[in-house]
Amino acid sequence: MNEQKYKKAFIESFNLPDTTEFEKLEYNTFEEWDSIGHMQLVAALETEFDIMMDMDDIIDFSTYEKGKEILKKYEVAF
Amino acid sequence: MLLQGKTAVITGCSRGIGKSTLEVFARNGCSVWACCRKPSEEFEAFILNLQNEYKVSIYPLYFDLADSEQVKKAAKEIFSSKQKIDILVNNAGVTPTNSLFLMTPLDSMKEIFNINFFSSMQLIQYIGRLMSKNRSGSIVNVASIAGLDGGPGQLEYTASKAALIGATKKLADEFADYQIRVNAVAPGVVETDMIGRMSEELLQESVSNNHMKRLGKAEEIANAILFLASDQSSFITGQILRVDGGC
After folding, report:
1. Can you tell me whether residue A56 is helix, strand or coil?
2. E strand or H helix that includes residue A44
3. Residue B157 bears catalytic tag
4. CB A38 within 8 A of CB A27
5. Cβ pairs A/B, distance under 8 A
6. How far is A40 from chain B (nearest CA, A)?
7. Separation CA A40–CA B177 (nearest Å)
8. Count of H helices and E strands in chain A?
9. Taking all residues of chain B, what is their mean pLDDT, rounded to a whole number?
10. Distance between CA A32 and CA A15 in Å, rounded?
11. Under an 8 A CB cutoff, do B132 and A46 touch?
């Protein structure tokens, strides 16, 4: 369930097709995931999971997989 | 009513410009997260009166801006309310004693910067994120003409307000992507508790140097903040509005 919500945040923030290889997504490796896109993603995740992320976590959030690790700190289970 | 149905966060609400801004915003239909350092019966009575008179919600929020953990906790409380935040007024600030630069300890400079600049930046990071989700908002920083013109003594105050002015201009550019406006007011010398730290000589000089030959009133600064916070200034961003009686 949370995996789907997590994926949805990426799809909507970066306008990605469902067929994307999400596990390979990395910050600043495609046009949409720039610094502005990053903050859109953070906003989407905060809304979706009802959390407020710390600044250090926003900065560390560098890949799709790393993001899941970070969200676990906010009691989001995958 | 210029702010009907809007919600604002204002720091330094217990006195002076912050207290006047709280009242002016309430009078204009705005609900407010009223931030100040510690509760008092007088302040609680003041906000109760505003709520009754203007039919708005005032949420007192007590924390120390010098403590970044407390700032974060306060931001989380605002965040948890799930309210749309339309306006942030970074008003709280401190003035040091009027000593010369060569007699100013580094720790004193850091302390003043921490409250006058870094705490405002931290709040903008949190509240700006909330605003960015709605792609709208107005941030008003309360700087000072000291940050524009300098002045005798108080290097750390002058420099911290100059930093706030620089940040205002920079953030206006960065936040424009989210339709968030960022402006500042630069008050001259205003009749508040803070002038108690000024010498009589300096006070007289400040009065004689402005065209209107008087001190400003807190409500006059609050009215300028109201303008920049409201949609009346919807195409204004990155500006520093002097409210100083002319010079």
Report:
1. helix
2. helix A35-49
3. yes
4. yes
5. 18
6. 8
7. 11
8. 4, 0
9. 94
10. 8
11. no
Q: Is the distance from CB of B2 to CB of B232 less than 8 angstroms?
A: yes
* Position B153 pLDDT exceeds 90: no
CA B9 – CA B7 distance, rounded (Å) = 7
Residue A24 within a domain: no
Note whether residue A49 is domain-resident.
Answer: yes
**Number of domains comprising chain A:** 1
Is the torsion defined by CA of A37, A41, A46, A47 positive or negative? positive
CATH of region B7-243, choose from 3.40.47.10, 3.40.50.300, 2.60.40.10, 3.40.50.720:
3.40.50.720
Range of the domain at A59: 1-11+32-78
d(CA B11, CA B184): 14
Residue A64 lies in a domain: yes
Residue A19 lies inside a defined structural domain of this protein: no
Q: Which residues contact B198 (CB under 8 A, 6 or more apart)?
A: B98, B189, B206
Bridge-based pairing state of the strands B87-90 and B31-36: unpaired
Convert the pLDDT of each residue in B88-99 to its tens digit: 999 999 988 777
pLDDT digits (tens, 9 = 90+) for B62-74: 999 999 999 999 9
Task: Tell me which of A32, A40, A45, A52 to substitute to probe the interface with B (most B C-beta atoms closer than 10 Å).
Answer: A52
Q: Give residue B162's pLDDT band: very low, low, confident or very high (50, 70, 90).
A: very high
Tell me how far apart the alpha carbons of residues B110 and B116 are, in angstroms, rounded to a whole number.
10
* Per-residue confidence band for B193, with pLDDT thresholds at 50, 70 and 90: confident
